[in-house]
Amino acid sequence: MTTPVVSQTKLHTGGTLIPSEHLYIKRPADALVLKLLRQSEYCNVLTSRQMGKSSLMMQAAMLLSAEGLHVATPDVSLLGSPADADSWYQGLLEEIASDLSLDVDVEAWWRQGKDSTPNQRLLRFFRQEVAAKLPGQLVFFLDEIDSTLKLPYTDDFFTAIRAMYNQRGKVPAYRRITFCLIGVATPNELIKDKRTTPYNIGKTIELEDFDSTRDDLKPLFHAVSDSDAQGEAIMRAILKHTGGHPYLTALVCEKVIERGLISPNDVEGMISALFVSLDAIRYDTHFEQVLRFIDERVEDKLATLHR
Questions:
Q1: What is the edge-to-edge ordering of all strands in the sheet holding 70-72?
Q2: pLDDT tens column, 124-177
Q3: CA 257 to chain centre
C-alpha cells in the first residue's frame, strides 16, 4: 500500500504562502506580472478571493528583491478605517517606509507638511523620501486594495497614483516607481465618484484556476502520493470537482493527506461526504467569504449561486 507523503515544501491551505516554506503552483500570471514590473509597467491583479493573489505577490516580491529592485508590500486593509484621510495616508507611508527601511520619521514628516493636501504630501514623499534616497527601480504592491471601497476619501489616493504614471514624462523620479494593485475589485470600482476619470492605468491580469494541461502540477502529485502515477490519478479526481480553484484544490489535497487516501474512488467518497450541501460547507472560511461577498456586493444573489 502506498501512503501519501508531503513534499519538502509543505502544502498550505488558506492565507498567504511563504515562498521558502510552502508548495506553490506557478501560472501564466506569475510570469506576466514579473515581466511588466521589470519593465516598470503598472499592473493590477484584481480577482475573486482565495485565488492566490497575495501568494503571487509574495513570490514576485521575493524574486524582484533578489534582482536588486526595492519592493514594498503594504496590506492596506491593516490601515483600518480612520475617520480622516491624513491618518490613512500617514499609516500607509509608515508601512512603506518600514518595508523599504527608510530613515525617516513619517509622523513628523507628515505633520510638517500639514499646509499641503494629503495628495500633495503623498507625491512629495515618493519623490523626496523614496526615489531620492533609493536608486534603481521601486515596486509597490498594494494588497487588499478592495478595503478602500468603503472609505470616502481614497478616490484622491488613486488619482495620485494615476498622476505619478501620467507625469512620468516630466518627473524622472516617477519613471522608477511602479505600482501593482492586488485585491477583490475591478479598476472601475476604485474611484467611486463617477464624475472623476476612472482608474484606467496598468494592465489588469486575470489569475486563472490551476489547469493540468498548462500548469506543472507535479508538486501536488508528490504531495498526495509518493507514486507519480497514483498522485496524478488522485489529482485528476480532485480537479474534476474543484475545477482547479486554488483554495479548493489545496483544501481537498490536505484532506486526502490527512485521511491517507490512496485512490480516486477514495477521493470521490470523501468529497461526497464533505460537500454534500451548502449547510455542510458554510462555516468553512472560504465559503463564508463567498456568501458574504454575494450578500454585500451582488444584486441578483440567486442567479449568481446557480451559475
A1: 70-72, 138-142, 177-183, 43-46, 203-204
A2: 999 999 999 999 999 999 999 999 999 999 999 999 999 999 999 999 999 999
A3: 27
Q: Are strands 43-46 and 203-204 parallel, antiparallel or unpaired?
A: parallel
Q: Are the C-beta atoms of residues 17 and 55 closer than 8 Å to each other?
A: yes
Look at residues 235, 242, 202 and name the one whose alpha carbon lies nearest to residue 216: 235
pLDDT band at residue 298 under the 50/70/90 scheme: low
Fold of 28-204: Rossmann fold (3.40.50)
C-alpha cell at 124: 512629495
Would you state the cell numbers that stand for residue 298, as one nine-digit string?
451582488
Cβ count within 10 A of residue 108 = 8
Tell me which residue of 73, 91, 48, 109 sits closest to 307, measured CA to CA: 48
Rg of the chain over Cα atoms, rounded to whole angstroms, equals: 22
Contacts of 10 (CB under 8 A, 6+ apart): 21, 22, 23
For residues 40 and 137, the answer to whether their CB atoms sit within 8 Å is yes
Contacts with 220 (C-beta within 8 Å, 6 or more apart), sequence order: 11, 23, 25, 231, 235, 249, 253
pLDDT digit string (tens) for 170-211?
Answer: 999 999 999 999 999 999 999 999 889 999 999 999 899 999
The pLDDT of residue 22 is: 82
pTM here is: 0.84
Residue 27 grid coordinates = 501560472
Average pLDDT, integer, range 33-55 = 94
Round to whole Å and give the CA distance between 26 and 218: 11
Measure the CA–CA gap between 161 and 132, rounded to whole angstroms: 18
Q: What angle is formed at CA 98 by the lines to CA 109 and CA 76, rounded to 5 degrees?
A: 90
Tell me the three state secondary structure of residue 50. coil
User: Distance (Å, rounded) from C-alpha 180 to C-alpha 140?
Assistant: 6
